[in-house]
Amino acid sequence: MKTPTTLRWISGLALALSLSGAAMAIEVGGLKFDDTVKVGGKELKLNGAGIRTRIVIKVYALALYLPEKKDTTVGVLESAGPRRFTLGLLREVTGDELGQAFMAGITANTDKAERSRFVNQLAQFGEAFVNIPQAKKGDMITVDWIPDTGTVMHLNGKPIGEPLKDVGFYNAVLKIWLGDKPVDSSLKPQLLGKG
């Protein structure tokens, strides 16, 4: 005969086993981010996550996903295969504000020659955000690099803009947070799994 303690232990074990197959999530700034995601048919792992703060205002939570964990900017930028970053808004912003902030971050972390190579993609990228009238607190933007497809963006699961073909452009976007002049110096180490 099974004792109540044994039954509790068995039911606890069964619950633990049933949850082990489910994707775990972390919470950043009150928003949930999965530990793993599928991009381009491959499973990516959460490399790091944190909050972008401007002065004292929490602007967004950001999570970076890679095929293998990397703890340097060079490692992230040279990572083969698909990649993703997910940006979860912690306040309302216009698409224009988002686009301008991204452009300022790219400009601060790339040189003129690099930007001139991506001039068309920069214009398309900016236009995709201008077409978002108002982004609300809790909205999620995913920006994926998918080999043979390009940079693919979604707002709450709906596509925005057209795929942008050059991996160098995707890396220029990542430099907003991982470059020599990141928009938030406390966020960079968190994305690199050091926070």
From TrEMBL:
Keywords: Isomerase, Signal. Residues 1-25 form the signal peptide. The keyword 4Fe-4S does not apply. Residues 26-193 form the Chalcone isomerase domain. GO terms for molecular function: isomerase activity. InterPro entries: Chalcone_isomerase, Chalcone_isomerase_3-sand, Chalcone_isomerase_sf. PANTHER family: FATTY-ACID-BINDING PROTEIN 3, CHLOROPLASTIC (PTHR47698). This is Chalcone isomerase family protein. It comes from Pelomonas caseinilytica.
